[in-house]
Amino acid sequence: MANQYPGPPPEQPPGQPGQNPYATPPGGPYAEGAYGYPAAPAYGYPQAVPPQPQPYAQQQPQPQPAFAAPLLTLGDIAVNGDTIVSPAGSMPLRGAVWTATDMSRTEERIPPHAIVLAILFFLLCFVGLLFLLMKERVTTGFVQVSVNSGGRHHSTMIPVQSRNQVVYVLNQVSYAQSISV
Known about the structure:
Layout: E1 72-74, E2 77-80, E3 83-86, E4 89-92, E5 97-109, H1 112-120, E6 136-149, E7 152-159, H2 163-179
Antiparallel strand pairs: 1-2, 2-3, 3-4, 5-6, 6-7
């Protein structure tokens, strides 16, 4: 079988015998560059001396921010204490204007299993036609929630699949309005 790759076989690297051409240059990564000037440090190598650690007695404790669970979350809008956090930035809770728009729709239709049962029981003295009186309600769409505060505005769309979810989101917006006063 012939060698598939051009060049010398892998056991013998190119260059002078007994010398590894892939080794670091003799002066290390900071060897002299062109015209005798020191070479610029390569990417990934330290640029400056890292700071030395201080003894334990001299270290000052850094205050850690207290983590608090959000009071309220509506899509990508969260209310933490007296701040509203959104992708548009942080906003003050006091004086915030909340709006909610129900953009969902509810349809009433005959479910597919009722149609199958009506066909199966049609032969039994037309009793199967009573299955066509079965109805189901299907809600699809979104509830749009907007908040305006501190010169910032953010709006989010929350998907809903039932009327109960619509009512839940609207109640959360009412609660947000009540704590924004």
